[in-house]
Amino acid sequence: MPELPEVETIVRALRSGGRGQPPLLGRQVRSAELLWGRTLAEPGADEFAQRIAGQTFQTSERRAKYLLLGLERDTLIVHLRMSGDLRVEADAGELEKHDRLALHLADGMRLVFNDARKFGRVWLAADPTSVLAGLGPEPFDPALDAQAFLAMLGRTQRPIKPLLLDQTFIAGIGNIYADEALHTAGIHPLAVASQIPALKAALLLDAIREVLQAGIERNGASFDWVYRGGEYQNQFRVYQRTGEPCPVCGSPIERRVIGQRSSHFCPVCQRF
User: Fold this and answer.
1) Do both 177 and 100 map to the same domain?
2) Residues 241 and 157 occupy one common structural domain
3) Cβ of 181: how many Cβ atoms within 10 Å?
4) Tell me: the pLDDT tens digits for 179-227?
5) pTM value?
6) What is the pLDDT of residues 86-111, one digit of tens each?
7) Out of 15, 158, 255, 261, which one is annotated catalytic?
8) Is 124 left (phi over 0), alpha (psi -120 to 50) or beta?
9) Residue 236 shares a structural domain with residue 261
10) Residue 61 within a domain
11) Per-residue DSSP letters for 182-231?
């Protein structure tokens, strides 16, 4: 958390405005203020400050759970991890307790990276592939059809839930949307990937796209202090609904730790 829909929501807000904030594009960086050193993955703090000063934000895109903010010569890459967020605001007053990086802009605004848990990271890269290499396909990639997805599943004996969370397998899915997609497709989180038949694999690919698109349309999911403004939490079928009735059959939703992550599922609808 945040996952693909939440990151996409932030990317769109930085591009065109939203979430109660003005757009970022077209604004020039005047100076950088690093408030917690480990937030910056690369380059070093001095080089970062020198390179980014004077550059103007031109694009706002997403790859997996990474935000790619295109400048004139470099790309500012941000991974929010567990608790990161970005805000565009007037460059006035004190920064907040958990602010880790502030870019002071030439027009009296600032871009601030806030991260309470300190897991988020920022890169300034001339070539984004140096950071993004190894990521799997995007869930909405047209080349990822049912046949290609089935072939991907057939190459591994791993349980499907941890596999969906593996960003080298498919990029952008996290715990929330994996649970929701598996329930929608009627697949148990411990099902062995290579044993999932073609029909079920096609249903799962459709379910992944369905829940991610629904999340994007509702500006992601908000259910704690980490990310605010989304409404997809009102559509949860199983995630964090342990003991509540399954919306399909009424059986109590169960929770099990799989691959060190909580998984929520219906023991009746997801027997496979």
Assistant:
1) no
2) yes
3) 26
4) 999 999 999 999 999 999 999 999 999 999 999 999 999 988 886 656 6
5) 0.94
6) 999 999 999 999 999 999 999 999 99
7) 261
8) beta
9) yes
10) yes
11) HHHHT--TT-BGGGS-HHHHHHHHHHHHHHHHHHHHTTS---SSSS-S--
Q: Which of 62, 65, 110, 237 is catalytic?
A: 65
CB 214 within 8 A of CB 223: no
Which residue, 79, 106, 132, sits at the end of a domain?
A: 132
Burial (CB count within 10 angstroms: exposed 0-12, middle 13-18, buried 19+), residue 157 = exposed
To the query of whether residue 118 is one of the catalytic residues in this protein, the response is no
d(C-alpha 145, C-alpha 136), whole Å: 14
On whether the CB atoms of residues 179 and 264 are closer than 8 A, the answer is yes
Q: Closest Cα partner for 54 from 27, 33, 83, 36? A: 27
Q: How far apart are the first and last CA of the chain?
A: 27
Q: Is 256 noted as a catalytic residue in this protein?
A: no
Structurally, how many domains does the chain consist of? Answer: 2
Q: What is the dihedral of CA 262, 87, 216, 201, to 10 degrees?
A: -40
Amino acid at 37: G
Question: Strand 99-105 to strand 84-90: parallel, antiparallel, or no bridges (unpaired)?
Answer: unpaired
Selected catalytic residue, list 2, 5, 139, 162: 2
CB 4 within 8 A of CB 177: yes
Instruction: Find the domain containing 229 and state its range.
Output: 146-265
Which of 105, 132, 159 is the endpoint of a domain? 132
